What does this fold into?
Amino acid sequence: MKLLDRSGHLPSGEWIGFLDKGVTLEGRLELSGTFRIDCQLKGTIVSSSTVVIGENARVEGEINGNHVIVGGRFEGTLTAKGRVEIQSKGVVRGEVRAPCLVIEAGGILDGRCQMTSAEEGKQPLTIPIRAASATSSP
It folds into this structure.
């Protein structure tokens, strides 16, 4: 049986498990494959693959992952090396750091977003722009 994300797509990576509603967890969760969370979780999630925060989930803390899909509620700092998706019923309060951010219609980002380079540790590129008055002739 293949587990799909809410939009019907198969997230990349091997599914390693899920936490369903009715579960309350506090602490650190380290993941090596695609994982779905539909529970209440307070703490830190570290993943080298895809993390799916389902519609029933309430997560507070910090997420460091590759691809993060938010369909429920997340409060804290979310850092992704790849892509962050906030689905139509998703709510993110706090800070998002990622090279790619997608917010579906109805999705909410209440906080700060920092678009990072896809290459970790790469300095941002600064492009000087001259004022129009300095380049135009009288």
Summary: The radius of gyration is 18 Å. The chain has a mean pLDDT of 83. The chain has one domain: 15-118. The chain is about 5% helix and 55% strand.
